[in-house]
Amino acid sequence: MKFYNLKKILEYDAQYYMVIGERSNGKSFSVWDYALSTYLKTGKQLAVIRRWQEDFKGKRGHEMCSGIVSEGLVKKYSNGKWNRIVYKSSRWYLAAFDENEDLTVDDKPFAYAFALSSMEHDKSTSYPEIGTILFDEFISRGDYLPNEFVLFMNVLSTIIRHRKNIKVFMLGNTVNKYCPYFDEMGIKHIKDMRMGSIDVYTYGDSELKVAVEYCAPNKSGKDSDVYFAFDNPKLQMITGGQWEIDIYPHCPLKYKTTDIVFRYFILFSDEMLQCDIISVEHGTFTFIHRKTGDIKNIYSDIVYTPEYHYETNYRRDITNIYDNIGKIIYSYFVKDKVFYQSNDVGEIVRNYLLWCKGCNTIS
After folding, report:
1. CATH architecture of 7-239
2. Domain range annotation of the chain
3. pTM for the complete prediction?
4. CA-based, 20 to 30 A from 338: which of 13, 170, 223, 232?
């Protein structure tokens, strides 16, 4: 099969369907296809959620469903009644040109657009005919909105109301395996999934079920892969669906235990990192590596974590400086004097710093 198909994951009959894989493999197309077919059979509309209002402006909104139009699916599923989709006022409508080139547009929308960044405007509106929800590109390598998961839940609440027959599709490219949605939704094993596998998460005695699929890449590859054949590991997420990981500076020298002048810790995304401040002959730097075992001095060692703690040695935001030791620690990040055990450790710290940035963003 050249492009992704929903058939396999839909067999799990869940409330949430999370699909992760390489770019341009047909994830979005498959949900638009499913939603269009469902609408023309049952009248159940589609809600499309994106992070920013700008994602829907101008040609972006028009082109989101261009695939199902160009493939002739609108005409096919409507038995020739409609042959295109028009986008206006944050809504998509089925439409058709007649023999006189006059455009006829359906009376009610086939789909609605929702932006998390402006969800306050949608709270008081009811959407009783929406049956499919698509949150596209929920995984970001850049910034997330402050309390974004709560915003997402509020949008779902606005749409779903008191119903229980809604299917929620969450689609993401493999750009960040420390996406905060994984922690918020209890998706604990995303980093260990094999391509082509599906994991199902359940939650206590509730009926809630989340099916998570890590798409297998097309065995023969895509024609466009030739443009990304550079010897650069960061491009593997485009051509093969591997998780995108930046290249981070590794420890520049061997050091002795006696060279460690201070130690602090970062706990983030179920990972524990030990951060050693190293002082050698020509300078000092921080080396961050995975911590095995427990923290010995739990009431005195500085620990950074998004979780709330009452103990004075626990801190949430490393960029929120209020004493001298905090100033010294953060100065290494400001001056690019931080080195990492591995690129994966660098990714954890990068995502923690993004979380800190979100703490300082006024919504």
Report:
1. 3-Layer(aba) Sandwich (3.40)
2. 7-239, 257-359
3. 0.86
4. 232
